[in-house]
Design a protein that fits this description.
By secondary structure, the protein is mainly α. The chain contains two helices and no strands. The longest helix is centred in the first third of the chain and has 45 residues.
Length: 79
């Protein structure tokens, strides 16, 4: 009986680690990307005056700063 409980505990710990790794390395960056892209779109929509358009460099800097604020490794919006 105790062997069975230990086996179940090990399986539970392994699954918990795998779920945590999936969240940390896949889901969290994906949600940060989605949120930062939405913020860049808001920035671009807010500046419709032809003299005050958002350049790709400005959008990229805004995106990178947003990504850093979310605790992620910065990446370029435009390559």
């Amino acid at each position: 009986m105790i062997e069975s409980n230990k086996k179940h505990a090990y399986i539970f710990v392994v699954l918990l680690v795998l779920v945590g790794m999936f969240y940390w390395f896949q889901l969290k960056p994906s949600l940060a990307r989605k949120d930062c892209l939405a913020k860049v779109d808001e920035l671009r929509k807010g500046r419709t005056d032809p003299k005050n358009f958002v350049t790709n460099e400005e959008a990229n800097n805004f995106y990178r700063r947003c990504f850093i604020e979310k605790g992620q490794q910065p990446e370029d919006l435009v390559k």
